[in-house]
Amino acid sequence: MDESMDEDGSFEMMDDHNHNNWEASADAYRQHPPNPQPQTGHAAHSSVCGAEGSALPNSGAHSSPEPGNGVGDCEDSAGTGASAGASSAAAGKVTLNINSSTSKFLMNVITTEDYKSTYWPKLESAIEQLLTQNPQDYIPISYEQIYSCVYKCVCQQHSEQMYNDLIHKITDHLQHISEELEASPPDQYIEKFDTALAQYMAALQSIVPLFIYMNKFYIETKLNRDLKEDLTKLFTDCVAEKHVCTLMPLLIEAHSTPFQITPSIMANIVKGLYTLRPEWVQLAPTLFSNFIPNILPPALESELSVYAAQDQKLQRELMQNGFTRGDQSRKRAGEELAYNGSSSSYATSRGYR
After folding, report:
1. How far, in Å, CA of 347 to CA of 203, rounded?
2. Residue 13: what pLDDT?
């Protein structure tokens, strides 16, 4: 069973197999047409003569009825009429079934105008909500109804139009996001990029499953691509690629100043950029290596002094920003030494070795 959408947005249950039943009935009718009952004796001869007589109305040979037994002729005629009536009834029954199934199938047809005026507006509204919602928020979307819309449109050969509409809708949204980032001040640029990236990736987790039927039977089959990869590439082309040259210096500067940017935000952006386009590692290898393993070549023994110098520099920077060990650390270290000394003296006094 399937659902059909009314103009007011409600759904009613309809039979998805009408089309299959109609085709099966038609094929059966073509392969096994109803055969009339065989006619014998005077009935068969009368049928032939009647046909010839109707074909040749002016022929003298068939202008008068053939002589014979009147009772036998009546019985043969009655048998012929019954056989013809049964054949006509059978043929009429098959025709009636075909017409009924055809009418049900035509009721489920989604025209191009139906798609543009009813189905796509509902899909577009759901996509807009998913793209603009906060990842932590919940919006009342009926995923079952949206999936049903996609399923019906694919079955009615609207996959290409639906795919183009989806790409166009998301492209417009990403262009708007890019314009907002361009207008952002430098001190808010990193946070806004992180918000846009996280919001879009969260939306894809809902959009891709809703269009999984289109992905399986159109994008993968005819385009030899994947919907999630296409939509991810849209963000790369429309947003990330346009802003990576502005974003990277800000990230390097923020990373050089401890806690200027929340570490989780820094990690999300760096990992996200690496996922979108791994070759962007070359723009800042050291920055990426702090969040992604195996970016830099293996450490060499000859460079241990360099690593030690880097650690010392980091410790000095932390101390300058107030992150020092302080008296409490030294006090804890002294207490630990005093505890170890007293324990040793107690063990010696008790004769333990």
Report:
1. 66
2. 38
